[in-house]
């Protein structure tokens, strides 16, 4: 016999006969005879221990799954009875089973979907179809590669464990219908059942727990978020192949990719709860892509600045070279002029000197200019600390000179290799961590 109902069906065994009908109700004579002396306000085995209630579930469909509200919605389908008596439930005692959910309501239909069967051995089968909303605390740190474990709890509201005992009729097979479910973003990986007790101030109450695991399908997010963000990163690398002199082109690519990536990041967060405690896997990947795109824009700023500095250095070196040439020409001209002046003075002195007195003349070496005496050597100055400071400055300048970029175009050449390799390495680490750890 196949049952189609949700969320719960339970059966209990009673040794009491059934009676007490409203005036005017018409039932078959056999049922009327069975209900003679029966009180629906007293549970079965009232004076002989707790009554046992077995439950089973048939999940008909899961309509929506919302990460914002962190809930799951269920919808059940009741089966049709054949060759059994189906009648009103009001004359019978039924367990006050409740679901610990925010909302649990009967479906919006013309008549109530309830079924009751009485078997010859005294077992009463009661079936009910309801629509319930189940709350589930989600861990979204690995979203969208997450796996959520949620529970559906069924417990007695007014009867404690001394009055009612719950159990699953067929263990883990008591829940059916999950194998045929078709969900948009999830797949049901596993489910199992357990028996527990709900502890309140008024006592301990029986509780049945249904656990199920849902794994999110990542294909949608790969096509919707991961592929576009990766392509934006690749698009930002196009600027490495554009000349440094094409300022509008490179700036346009950098700014456009940054703004597009920002819009993509904002769109990815609209479907998720605004919880600061969650740093989701998709946020990490979008942050990585944004960093690479912004880094490509900064790379052009650095390369362009180095190109301008390199041009200024060339101009400065050319100016110094021209200044050195001018100084060298001025020195040559000054040397020739001084040589001619000294030669003329020597000839004039030789003509004015008397012939008989060559021995009384003393030759005094002339100064390089021919008029000034040779200065005496000055004593060495005490500048030891100044020389040490200058040596230190030279070492620092030499170290900075080693870091200087000889050719700014080499920055783009290095970026064409380092950016793709770094992005591939980061992707390998990202997917390995979030898929296997």
Outline the secondary-structure elements:
Blueprint: E1 7-13, H1 29-34, E2 51-58, E3 61-66, E4 71-75, E5 97-99, E6 103-105, E7 114-118, E8 123-129, E9 131-135, E10 147-156, E11 164-168, E12 175-176, E13 186-200, E14 203-216, H2 219-236, H3 247-269, H4 281-352, H5 384-403, H6 409-436
Parallel strand pairs: 2-11, 2-12
Antiparallel strand pairs: 1-2, 1-8, 3-4, 4-9, 5-10, 6-9, 7-8, 10-14, 13-14
Structure description:
The protein has 437 residues and is an alpha+beta fold. It has two domains: 211 residues, Neurotransmitter-gated ion-channel ligand-binding domain (Acetylcholine Binding Protein, Chain: A, Distorted Sandwich); 149 residues, Up-down Bundle (Methane Monooxygenase Hydroxylase, Chain G, domain 1). Helices cover 38% and strands 22% of the residues. It contains six helices and 14 strands. The strands form three sheets. Strands 1, 2, 7, 8, 11 and 12 form a six-stranded mixed beta sheet that branches. A hairpin with a 2-residue loop joins β13 and β14. It is a multi-pass membrane protein. It comes from Gasterosteus aculeatus aculeatus (three-spined stickleback). Belongs to the ligand-gated ion channel (TC 1.A.9) family.
Entry summary:
The protein is 38% helix and 22% strand. The two termini are 44 Å apart. The model is unreliable at 1-24, 75-87 and 357-371 (pLDDT under 50).
């Amino acid at each position: 016999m196949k049952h189609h109902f949700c969320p719960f069906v339970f059966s209990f065994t009673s040794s009491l006969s059934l009676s007490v009908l409203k005036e005017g109700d018409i039932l078959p004579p056999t049922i009327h005879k069975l209900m003679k002396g029966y009180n629906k306000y007293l549970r079965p085995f009232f004076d002989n221990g707790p009554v046992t209630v077995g439950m089973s579930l048939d999940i008909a469909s899961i309509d929506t799954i919302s990460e914002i509200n962190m809930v799951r919605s269920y919808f059940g389908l009741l089966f049709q009875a054949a060759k059994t008596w189906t009648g009103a439930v009001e004359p019978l005692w039924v367990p006050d089973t409740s679901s610990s959910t925010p909302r649990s309501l009967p479906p919006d239909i013309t008549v109530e979907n309830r079924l009751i069967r009485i078997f010859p051995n005294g077992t009463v089968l009661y079936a009910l179809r309801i629509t319930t909303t189940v709350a589930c605390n989600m861990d979204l740190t690995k979203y969208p590669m997450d796996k959520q474990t949620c529970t559906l709890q069924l417990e007695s509201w007014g009867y404690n464990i001394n009055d009612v005992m719950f159990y699953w009729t067929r263990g883990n097979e008591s829940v059916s219908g999950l194998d045929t479910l078709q969900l948009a973003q999830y797949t049901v990986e596993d489910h199992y059942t357990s028996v527990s007790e709900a502890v309140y101030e008024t006592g301990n109450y029986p509780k049945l727990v249904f656990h199920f695991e849902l794994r999110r399908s990542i294909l949608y997010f790969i096509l919707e978020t991961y592929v576009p963000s990766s392509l934006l990163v690749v698009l930002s690398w196009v600027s490495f192949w554009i000349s440094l002199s094409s300022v509008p082109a490179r700036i346009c690519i950098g700014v456009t990719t940054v703004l597009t990536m920002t819009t993509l990041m904002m769109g990815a967060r609209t479907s998720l709860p605004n919880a600061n405690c969650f740093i989701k896997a998709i946020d990490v990947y979008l942050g990585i892509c944004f960093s690479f795109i912004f880094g490509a824009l900064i790379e052009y700023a650095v390369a362009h600045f180095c190109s301008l500095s390199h041009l200024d250095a060339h101009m400065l070196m050319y100016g110094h070279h021209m200044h050195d040439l001018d100084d060298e020409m001025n020195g040559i001209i000054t040397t020739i002029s001084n040589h001619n002046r000294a030669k003329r003075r020597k000839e004039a002195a030789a003509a004015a000197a008397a012939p008989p007195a060559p021995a009384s003349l003393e030759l005094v070496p002339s100064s390089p200019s021919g008029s000034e005496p040779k200065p005496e050597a000055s004593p060495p100055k005490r500048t030891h600390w100044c020389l040490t400071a200058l040596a230190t400055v030279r070492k620092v300048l030499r170290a900075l000179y080693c870091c200087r970029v000889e050719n700014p175009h080499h920055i783009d050449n290095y970026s064409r290799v380092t950016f793709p390799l770094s992005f591939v390495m980061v992707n390998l680490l990202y997917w390995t961590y979030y898929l296997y750890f």
